[in-house]
Every structure is written in structure tokens, then in C-alpha cells.
Amino acid sequence: MATIRTDTPLPFTLPKLGEEYDNTSDDPRVRQPLVLGGKHFNEVTENVASISERKIHPAWVVCLLLSLGLLTVFGTMLGYLVLTGVGVWGNNNTVNWAFGIVNFVFWVGIGHAGTLISAILFLFRQKWRTGINRFAEAMTIFAVMCAGVFPAVHVGRPWLAYWLFPLPNQMETWPQFRSPLMWDVFAVSTYATVSLLFWYIGMIPDLATLRDRSTSRVRQIAYGLFSLGWTGSSRHWHRFERAYLLLAGLATPLVLSVHSVVSFDFATSQIPGWHTTIFPPYFVAGAIYGGFAMVLCLAIPARQYFGLKEIITRRHIDNMAKVMLGTGLIVAYSYTMEFFIAGYSGNTFEQFHFLHNRPFGPMKICFYLMMFGNVVAPQLLWFKKLRNHLGVVMFCAIAANMGMWFERFVIIVISLHRDFLPSSWAMFYPTPVDIATLCGSFGLFFTMFLLFCRFLPMVAMAEVKTVMPESHAHSPHGEHHRWDYQPDQHSKTGPYKKGERLREVRDWTGI
Amino acid sequence: MTTQTLDTPVRTDDFPPELAGYLAEFDDVNTVMSAAEVVRDAGYTRWDVHSPFPIHGMDEAMGIRPTILPWLVLAGGLAGLGGALLMEWWMNAYDYGYMVSGKPLFSLPAFIPIMFEATVLIASLTAVFGMLFLNKLPMLYNPLFKSDRFRRVTNDRFFVVIDATDPKFDEVETENLLRSLNPLAIEQVED
User: Fold this and answer.
1) Which pTM value belongs to this model?
2) What residues of chain A lie within 8 A of the CB of B28, using their CB?
3) Which of A129, A143, A150, A293 could lock A400 by a disulfide, CB 3.0 to 4.6 Å apart?
4) Has residue A509 got a pLDDT over 50?
5) Domain ranges of chain A
């Protein structure tokens, strides 16, 4: 096993942050390294691949057993629902969309961060994405799996859920494509498929790495089959990169469309609290906010326990916290705008909903939890000191996840339980089955995630290697530099020479 | 010349290994890049550079022509777009008309979200499976996998491989060319 050097061969010294190197500086003259610890390619491979090769840690087994326990609860609750009927949930009154749809929107929203990181940040050449994209994409797929379960059982007779798809049937009917619920079926199933493809093709080169390192026959055959005979051929890389770029280009509008379409389920109806034009961008921003919160919730412990601190660095955490702050502010703006428009519209029903029922109604606690998680908590992330404190970031991430779940609850349940006709008003109380199903869905999510951490490459090794300075031939500064711009050696004080600046910029953007 | 009857098992040494090509091993990007330029200029056509990650600028150094994949994806996207429109028209406006609030049966604005999703879906499937098809993957057997040295190609080493089927391939001259590139090692690949 190669030894991992802990000293840094950087031409400038990175300050320390506790026991870790602090590469979060925003000084534009110094390009901060994205892989720390003076690693060479082999050490990156070793660092990542050894996670699935070393002996199973008892802590992992304990976590897996706990998750499997929750998964069993999930399965039992779903079985109970299928055998008994959807009435085992609390929405057997006029509030006919409750936990089922809240959980669906919650999980789909979480899924958005993965594709955002893999597609949109790829197009924007945000090189730091390479450290986190693999497990963010995995998280997306597992979240979409959890999401898919809820509408399927909420239809009441899940064995007839295939009616949602345009399949010939004995009733000679076809789905109604003018309904936003139908758009949702297509949006979510396309999203699940494209995310899975994106995740898998990105993983092929790394599966080949695991194949080439395997010592046992079983691992050789398993990784050999799934890596499809990848040899790292440059002719293959050429088409691979092109396919990856095209997928990123296709997935970018897709990720924005999915939560827009989810929001159409509400926005095209007339219920006060749903009937708003701001919904699509508001939902997308909320999804990215909640999704990044979930990535942080998984990344902070994972980098700790799997020894990935030099690949998922403090800069990655810092950047993700900034994305959370930015999208959190869009969410806060949207909340404010909803209230303003309700007051400004002069519509009695809108005013009743936003100015009375949400903040002062019987479920006001949910509203305040939502405001705390999504508006108050992210304000901590304005401060670099607090962004550099893992405990604070973790707190904000958990608060955001909670806040985003309550946001969907507020939108769906508080709007439905008191709409136009007081005669159809009803109170919603979740049943134990409701709560157990929600908790159980986390069992599915964490079981999948733990299996992924153990058996698949958790970090995109091939991609991380491309952001290391050694991966570029012919440094633009002439001789080979380990780091592109070295302020100590050049000590430029005056303005750049003509042409030099352009080269610097090109070098920065990676174009 | 011996003749074999059907019940004698075929022995592997009746088929002596054939030379499949040469591989030359490198350990940094700059050297393999200039090596690629030399092999390209020597006029070889059936050869490749294998690396753990895509090397920026390798396409030019090897003279790889742009792939037709984007055109396939465009075709896939258009097929998805047209296919979805056709499906929606046929199912909702022709075969099973169902009046909702007096809206037209063929209402294009309401059909757009599904047309968009189908475009993305078919185009993405084309991008992935088109890439695999053009790369002739999955291909689980490859003579290169017999080389222990080559196992580092997915870790930290770079390989120039010249195929024995190349019209310019010559056991001596090709080896000399590879030797002049200053590799860490040269190996015969046997099939």
C-alpha cells in the first residue's frame, strides 16, 4: 500500500484549519488546489479504491443493520397499505394529498442536487465538482427511488399503476396528456432514467480501476462485467467525453424542468396557496437548496469516516455552503413574494390563506419550522468563519432538510385543509402509518447509500485526476509547474504584459 | 502434419500465441503526448494511447477525427420530439378524444412538456448507447488484459499500443520506433 504523504509540496503554504489544510481562500491571484496532501495519481486511486477493498468495518455493519431495520418498517407499512387500502393514511378526508405527496416532492427535490452538480456545474466548468459528483449522483438516484414509491402507492390500487403509462389496455383508453399529473409521470421517469445513465457511464472508467485492482475472482468478474471491457483507449475517451458533454447539456434543462413540472401539479390548480406563477423557479431553487443540504449531510460524515478529507476538501464544503446560501435566499424571496402578492391581489381567499391560515392557523408550527429551516438558518452561512465550522454547516444542512420537508407540508396540507368552502374544511392528523412510512423511506435511502459506499467507487477517480495539475501536458508557463501560478516565484507587482492576462484567464477557466 | 480426431481434446499449445501488437509504457503526460505525435507522424493507423483519464490535447496529438455522435444524438432528439407529438395527437385527439372544459383535443401548449421530456430521454439514450456502440463496447475480451503491466492503465500509467494488424507494422521497426520514444518498458502483446 502506497504511503500517503501528509506534507504539501505546494509553492505556497496553505494555512491550517484544525488538523486540515484550509484551501478556502478566495484570493483570485492564487489558484487553490482541489486535491490536497501532495497526492499523485496512484495515491488518489489508492485513497478511493481501498474503501471498497479493506475489511468491512463493524460501524458500517451497524449502520447497515439499522438502515435495514428501517427498510423493513417501510416494506411492512407499504404491504399493510396495499392489503388494507390508502385509508390507513390520515388523508382519508378532504385533505386528500398529504404525506404521500409531501414525501414524494421532498425526495424528488433532494434528487436535484446530484444532477445539478454533474450537469450544470460541469457546463460551468466548476472543477471542484469532481470530488463530490459521484456520490451526489448516487444520492439522486436513491432519492428518486424513494420518491417513486409514494405516488405509486398513493394511487390506491398500486397494481393498476401501469395505467399511468401510455400502454394499450383492455378498456381501450389512453392517458390524458393535457393533465400536469401526466407531465409529472414523464418528467420523473425521464429524470430517473437519465440520472441513472449519467451515473453509470461516468462510473465505467472507475469500475475498470476496481477491476484491475481486484485480487479475488468474484470481484474480477463482477467489476469486469460492469466495466464493459474499458481499456482507457484515447479513441474511446474521445467519444466518452463527447457523450458526457451531450448528456450534461441534455440534463441541464431536464433538471430545471423536473421540479417545474412537479410545481405545475399545484400551480395549474385553483387552490389558494397553489395557484401562483412563481412556483416553477421557486420549486427549483428549493429543490437545489434541499438537495445540497442532503449532499452536505452525507459528505461531512463520509469524508471523515472513509478518509477522503484530501479529496473532498474544505473548499468543497465551503462552496456547497455558498450554493445553499444562494438558493436559500431565492427561497426566502419567493416566500416574501407569495405573501406580498396575496396581500396586493385583494383576493379574499388568497389573503385568508397567506395572511391568516399559514402564520396563525392550527398548523402554524409547521409554518414556523419551515421559516426557521429555510430562511433563518441559512443566514449563518454568510460568514466565512461559520462556513468553515463543520458543526455549523451540518446544523444548517439538517435544518434545511427539515425546513424543506415542512415547506412541502405547508404548501400541500395547509392549502388543502381550508380552501374555498368552509363546509369542506377538515383537519389533518398523520396516522402512525404515515409517520412510519416516512421514516421507513429513509431506511431505503440509507441502505442503498451504504451499499454504494462499500461496493462502488465513491469518488470519480478519473475525473479527479483531470483536475490535478499533473494531468495537463505542456504548462502554459513553459516548464512543468506542479501548480500553475506561483505568486512567490513570480512576484508580479505591475500590470500584466499584453497577452499574458488572456493566457492566465484561459488557464483558469480551463478552456 | 498431424491430424486430430474429434475425441482428442484440443490442446492450447496447438495454437501458439500470435503477436497482437506492442505496448510501450509511460509514466507522465508530457512524454506520452510527444510519443503520440511521433507515432502519428510515422503514419500508423491502427494504434492507440491508453490512459487513466482523458488527456487534454490528445485528440490533436493522435489525429483523432471528431466523432459523429452529436449527429446521432440530434437525430435521437428529433425522433423523441416528433414521436411524442405523434403519440399525443393520436392518443388524445384521434383515437380516444376526451373533452375537458371544452379545450381543443389537439392542444399543442399542453403537449409541450411531454415532447420536451421525450426529446431529452431519446437523445440521452442515443448518447449513451451510441457512445458504447461506436466504441464497440461491451467487449469483455481484449488481449491487452493478459498483460500484468497494463493493469495500471486505470491507475497512473499511460500506454502507446500499436496493433499488429497495422499495415505499417513491422516487428523490428515498430519496436525501434517505440524504443526511441523513451518509454519505461516495451512489451509484446500476445493474443
Assistant:
1) 0.88
2) 470
3) A293
4) no
5) 25-505
